[in-house]
Amino acid sequence: MNNQIPPQLPFRTEALENADIIASARTIIHEGPICDNCLGRQFAKIASGLTNEKRGEILRSVLEAELKEGKCWLCNGLFENFDAWALKALETLKGYEFDSFLVGTKVNGMLLENEELLWEIAGAAYAEPLKAELNREVGKRIEHETGKIADFDRPDLVVILNLVTEAVELQINSVFIYGRYRKFKRGIPQTKWLCRECRGKGCDRCDFTGKMYAESVEELIGGSILEEFGGVVTVLHGSGREDIDARMLGSGRPFVMEIKEPKLRELDLKWLENKVNDENKDKVEVLELQYVKREAVAKIKNAKVDKTYRAVVSLKTDVLEEDLRSALDNLIGAVIEQRTPLRVVHRRADLVRKRKVYDARLISFEVPIVEFKCDGGLYIKELISGDNGRTIPSLSELLGTEAEVKELDVVDVAI
């Protein structure tokens, strides 16, 4: 966005003295009062190293034409107020932390019509749109005053000059933080669940909270960091999710927390990690926090992961320890054909999915505790129970007795 020209490059003005260019400029000037910016902008692709205002001055000098009295009919005096827009933008930016920015403009209908009318009269072969010049010139002033850089690909925020409302608006790009979380308490979903009855409005069923559950991992972590960043809302993007009644232990589950519209962007993440953990003791803990780009969300969502589960199992009839070990051995390396479990078929397509078990071990026999390492997406409760024959093979089928999970923990998510 910096429009400064190296001093060793001379301004090239000869092209502006071309007969066709002069004739076109004369046509434009005869339409009515027009400022040098708007006149020069119609020839922005000619004579490198000049501002549009300077192009306009040169053309007016060549034509020996004076400025006609009155506001520029094309921009309605807009380019007399560059500094006013820049000051308004700088005032709006106060309190926001950013390293890079971009300027955009919402143009009102009258200015668009004026510009299109002029292009019909004089042609647009060499012209630059009005908003492109406004973006650049205001951007140069913001760069100069703040020392921040313009970034056309991935700015921290976008300054929007709204010519319709005459206000400056900000589009703040999100901050993304990668980490892993552990969940120590059962009964907490990963993200907020809206009440099925009222869809978040509040009703008797949800005690007018609008939620199915009082708290979630997303809300616990987000509640500890949102105010620190001065953001509007947080969104947790997890690498899969554990059941509400399952704990997430071991290495923790990878996630990316998105903070939308933050005022601050660079907090000490070790300090933030300690704050989250201190405020959510016995519920949630976060590890390995680090800043990442937006692409990290898709990366953890699409990554192929292996998971390790530990389950306390209830058996309807007594079985021998050797039979239980044998049944688990038979599951190692098995490809499980699992039809969508009955408990989730209301929200997932009713399909048969194939998943593999990589390891199955008996941790304890007196109170049966088993551990499985398997593909992500394998429902462990149904691997154990069989889900009325919807999961084949299952521990229940191999043992010849009903088996069900009493407690379930996720102990590793490998990504």
Q: Quick one: CATH class of the largest domain?
A: Alpha Beta
Main pleated-sheet profile: 10 strands, mixed
Tell how many strands the DSSP assignment holds. 14
Give the structural class. Answer: alpha+beta
CATH domain topology of the largest domain? THUMP fold
Q: Name the CATH homologous superfamily of the largest domain.
A: THUMP superfamily
**What's the CATH architecture of the largest domain?**
2-Layer Sandwich
Poorly predicted runs of 5 or more residues: 1-11
- The helix content, as a percent range, equals 25-40%
Give the helix tally: 12
Number of separate domains: 3
Describe the protein's topology:
Blueprint: H1 19-30, H2 36-41, H3 52-63, H4 82-93, E1 100-106, H5 109-122, H6 130-146, E2 149-150, E3 157-162, E4 167-172, E5 175-183, H7 217-229, E6 233-238, E7 246-260, H8 269-279, E8 284-292, H9 295-302, E9 306-315, H10 321-331, E10 335-339, E11 352-364, E12 369-375, H11 380-385, E13 391-392, H12 395-399, E14 403-414
Parallel strand pairs: 1-2, 1-3, 7-14
Antiparallel strand pairs: 3-4, 5-7, 5-8, 6-7, 9-12, 9-14, 10-11, 10-13, 11-12
Explain briefly what this protein structure is:
This protein has helices spanning 19-30, 36-41, 52-63, 82-93, 109-122, 130-146, 217-229, 269-279, 295-302, 321-331, 380-385, 395-399, and strands at residues 100-106, 149-150, 157-162, 167-172, 175-183, 233-238, 246-260, 284-292, 306-315, 335-339, 352-364, 369-375, 391-392, 403-414.
